[in-house]
Amino acid sequence: MGAIGVLIRRNALVILMSIELMLNAVNLAFVTFSRQHDSMDGQIFVFFIMTVAAAEAAVGLAIVVALFKNKSTVNVDDINIMKW
Asked: What is the pLDDT of residues 5-50, one digit of tens each?
C-alpha cells in the first residue's frame, strides 16, 4: 500500500505517510523474522529504522511546510522549483 501511495498520489503529505507505511512494514517483517529465528538482530534494525523514520518525518514535514508557505500548494506536480 505504501509503494502504491507514493506512485499514485500527488499530495506531498500523503506521500510522506506512504513512506512511513513502507518503513513500518519493513519493521514488522524484521520483528517477524527475528522472532522466527530467535535472534535479536531484527529488533535492533527496527530501532535503527524507527530513528530514520522520525528524522524523515521531521525533515519531510519541514520541507512540505516551507513549500506550502512559498507555493500555497502541496501538490507535487505544481512544485517544480528544482527544475531548470
From this structure: 888 888 999 999 999 999 999 999 999 999 999 999 989 999 999 9
Q: Which of 54, 77, 63, 82 is nearest to 8 (CA)?
A: 77
Q: Is 68 exposed, middle or buried (0-12, 13-18, 19+ CB in 10 A)?
A: middle
Spatial distance between the Cα atoms of 6 and 30, rounded to a whole number of angstroms: 22
For the chain, the first-to-last Cα distance in angstroms comes to 33
Cα–Cα distance, 23 to 53 (Å, whole number):
7
Taken in order 25, 68, 70, 4, is the CA torsion positive or negative?
positive
Of the candidates 11, 16, 17, the residue with the CA atom closest to the CA atom of residue 76:
11
Size of the chain, expressed as the number of residues it contains: 84
Q: Is the pLDDT of residue 51 over 90?
A: yes
